[in-house]
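The pair is quoted verbatim underneath.

:::
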Amino acid sequence: MTRLAVLGLGHETNTFSTVPADLATYEDGGIHRGQEMVEHYATSQATFAGFLAAQDDDPDPAELVPLLAAWINPCGAVTAEAFETIVGEMVDLLRREGPVDGVLLGLHGAAVAEGAHDADAEITSRVRAVVGPDVPIGVVVDMHANVDERLVEACDVLLPYQTNPHVDPRERGIECRSRVLEIIRTGRRPGLALEMLPLVVTITRQDTAEEPMASLLARSRELEQLPGVLDVSIVEGFPYADVPQMGMSVVAAHEDGREAAAEVARTMAAEVWAAREQLQGGGLSVDEGLDRVAEHTGDEPLLVLDVGDNVGGGGPGDSTVLLAEAVRRGIDGVVVVLLDPATVAALAGREVGERVEVAVGGRSVEQEGRPVPIDAVVVGRSDGRYEEPKIAHGGLRFFDAGDMVALQTTEGVTVVLTSKLVQPITPNQLRSVALDPSSFRAIVAKGVNGPRAGYADVCGGHLVVDTPGVTRLSVEAFAYAHRRRPMYPFEPATAYPADARDS
């Protein structure tokens, strides 16, 4: 029976964050081994769920060997200790459980570790060193991957997500497994090629249901209909990682080899480059955003996207910029979720219905707000464990926010405090503390694209607010030391291909 190893380490690294991705953080619920992987991921919509999906339609199903999956929220660089410990265990398990006929590797694609700017390529290279040159390796990465040639060289199949919000991870995992099995059964290795663009797409133009991404992805699907073309994937990249491979790219696979794949990748990349101006965009100021909220009288709440404190991009989750202004203005019907373990601990034992006076949020150095004093009533409590059985960003199902407390201020603003950082991608977070998401005027979500899928059935529209913080909208404000130069929009005169200006 064909044996496929399933493993991976995921991290979206914001190199401008000072919060490290250390071993303790991974060990606090971020690592699942063996059968734990199956229990945690099998019923989700994540990449590993696709790798581990039932093979009922396959007359010759493979034996799936779940080894280790490590995944945590975005923050600063992965520490050397965490990287060497976890990756070391991954490759040791691969050796111990071998031999295998193929490898299914789940990565993010924008991981940066201390001493390894291309951490995903380093992981894949170490896996390759264990299994040798003849065993196919299939990799699935996030659409925000910063892909480099070293990663492409180390694997045989490379499939980035093609939706943002990311609702196709499971689908891409299944496809990756099928492609790896095809290589094993036929012995034919398609060509894989990468075309890197000197281009950053603004995070507010990354929604794949909106233009110009929608049309670009439709074009990539058209190219996939050409003879021999197996995949044409547009990768949006992750601009908060200061690494040489940061930026947009195109990955293509072709039955006729690498050069055929490269030609298709260049064709698609040229169309992405032609849309470079449309791939830039802005957001509302804090005042403009809250003006819209105050004026809102619709039956469904507005989803207010707090760009500068995007938990899905490395934000700390405790910025109070929007909360402070909503309280100052006395805008009722607004709910904000903040990471504040200290205040949650201070409120231990306080019952629902009790009035409390506390200062919330605004404690991390990654944001510009200050703790906001509030006079409030405790309106809900939870142990912070909830799930999203439907589709949500990244395909995640099980969440652990630690102890949670919901407070409603005298101004009518609701604040939900968590003890652990979680991405705000499902309204079930609010329901877990006995709040009805549809009852609010506005729901402030610390994200940009991630919350949209989960809240689509609750909210009647969204506002993108350009708040300050470590995930701010204007990437030109960051001091990059390692990115390529020139790049658009940093250097507006950037040419692509590089010699285009001279032709």
